[in-house]
Amino acid sequence: MKNILFSAAFCFAALCGIAQGNDVELKLTLRDGNVVSGTSRISNIVLVTDYGKLEIPLKNVTSLDLGLSSDKPGAAKIASLVKQLSNSDEKLRKSAYDELVQSDIRAIVTISDLISSAGYEPSTFTDYTADAALSELESKYGVDSGFSSKDVISIDYEYTIGGVYDFTKIELKTEYGTLSIPKEKIRHIDVLYSGGSGNGELTFKLMGSKHISANPNGGWLKTGIMVKAGQKLNISASGEITFASLSGSAYKPDGSIAGSTAAVEAGMYDSYGSGATYPTYGNVVYKIGENSAQALKAGAKFSGTAAANGMLYISVYETVYNAANSGSYTVKIALK
């Protein structure tokens, strides 16, 4: 995955309170471990950088990891409380500590910055310390000690852009009503797509060096598409992948070897209308649900129905993974 990290500010139009865009399904992973799904009205993402303004089509956004933002207006108060931890009066130290650990999640950034600053002088007392207050706040809000202050957006499963985007909360419509969820309570956002909602055909790239079914780390590409049992599913693929694991032969999505005079006849490895599900080397395969162990053949052209409810994943079939593979397949998916 390619990473592009720079200081940036961008916002979802709907999340910033502007009622425009499309209803899209989101899955929010909260900092307390809970997961909530629903729909929100979102426009394309406007990304403002030092190099100009980018407008990213929503269909290209796959996920967002949210960092922690600091409480700039409250920074002076936090700094004063941290300083008070060095007071010789134990009651004052305890009072300052108790107030620190009751602060909201944004105090984590401020305290961390103070501790790591060049001019910071830790207290000589060991009963109520800034480090202890920081650890208690991180535990309280479910924040890892290696947290980031940057938000990271994933685009087309290939690129990540780090920065800061401006929104205070998400209005999420769920089966239990509309929930208003503050940004600081959200750890991760998955942008999901469901067929029949006007999203049209989506395009993905399967990389030979990564998206191989035998790769235990990231071999399956999460499309972000939610399917329902019985829903019509169309998959088409093109391109070539050279498998270092298969003597350097270049394969096509239908399972044929590129340039081979003994290439399979059209339809032999093609899933369109055949009903065959067992894949061969080089085939595009799919599964429904992250924990599904069944790799179903899509090949170069597939039309069928989903057998279960869940997230759609795609990969390239091979029983051995070799990172020296090269090339890619372009895969197009449409639901009805």
Helix content: 10-25%
- What share of residues are in beta strands? 35-45%
N-to-C span:
31 Å
The Rg value, from CA coordinates, equals 25 Å
Uncertain spans: 4-20, 195-199, 262-275
Q: Which architecture name of the largest domain does CATH use? A: Sandwich
Structural class: mainly beta
| CATH homology-level superfamily of the largest domain | Galactose-binding lectin
Shape: elongated
The CATH C-level name of the largest domain is: Mainly Beta
Order of helices and strands: EEEEEEHHHHEEEEEEEEEEEEEE
CATH topology of the largest domain: Jelly Rolls
Largest sheet: 13 strands, mixed
> What is the number of strand segments?
20
> So how many helices?
4
Write the topology of this structure:
Blueprint: E1 2-12, E2 22-30, E3 35-42, E4 45-49, E5 52-56, E6 61-65, H1 75-84, H2 90-101, H3 107-116, H4 130-141, E7 151-155, E8 159-165, E9 169-174, E10 177-182, E11 186-194, E12 202-207, E13 221-227, E14 232-243, E15 249-251, E16 284-288, E17 296-297, E18 301-305, E19 310-316, E20 326-335
Parallel strand pairs: 1-8, 11-13
Antiparallel strand pairs: 1-4, 2-3, 2-11, 4-5, 6-7, 6-11, 7-8, 9-10, 12-20, 13-19, 14-15, 14-18, 14-20, 16-17, 16-19
Helix pairs in contact: 1-2, 1-3, 3-4
